[in-house]
Design brief:
This protein is mostly helical. It has 3 helices and no strands. It has a domain of 63 residues. The protein is elongated and about 50 Å long.
Length: 111
C-alpha cells in the first residue's frame, strides 16, 4: 500500500518556489502596455546616455563645430524632456528603468 498523502514541503523548496514566482513575467492584460513601455524606455534611456557620453567626448576632443554642439545639446535636452513626459504618463520613475543585471550590477549608471 502506498501513502497518497502529500509530503510537507521542505523549507528550501518553499524558498526556491517563492523566488521562481518573483522572477516570472506577469502577463496580466492590465500591465502589458506599461511593462512594454518600461522596456522600450529602458532601451531608449541607455541609448540616450551613450549618445550623450559620445557627444561629450567629441566636444572635449574639439571634433564639432559650434553649430553641431548646439544642435546636439538641444536634441539631447528635448529627448530628456520627452523621456520625462513618458515616464510620468506611465507612472515610472527614472530608477524603474534601471535593470538589475545580477553580478554585473545595474544596466544604467546611478545618477
Amino acid at each position: 500500500m502506498t501513502d497518497t498523502a502529500p509530503r510537507p514541503r521542505e523549507e528550501d523548496e518553499e524558498d526556491e518556489e517563492d523566488r521562481a514566482g518573483r522572477n516570472r513575467i506577469s502577463l496580466d492584460a492590465d500591465t502589458v502596455e506599461r511593462d512594454l513601455v518600461k522596456l522600450v524606455l529602458t532601451v531608449v534611456e541607455l541609448l540616450r546616455q551613450l549618445m550623450e557620453r559620445q557627444a561629450l567626448r567629441r566636444v572635449d576632443a574639439g571634433d564639432l563645430t559650434d553649430e553641431q554642439e548646439e544642435r546636439i545639446g538641444l536634441t539631447l535636452m528635448l529627448l530628456d524632456e520627452r523621456m520625462t513626459e513618458l515616464r510620468e504618463r506611465y507612472g515610472l520613475r527614472p530608477e524603474d528603468l534601471n535593470l538589475d543585471l545580477g553580478p554585473l550590477g545595474p544596466l544604467l549608471p546611478r545618477q
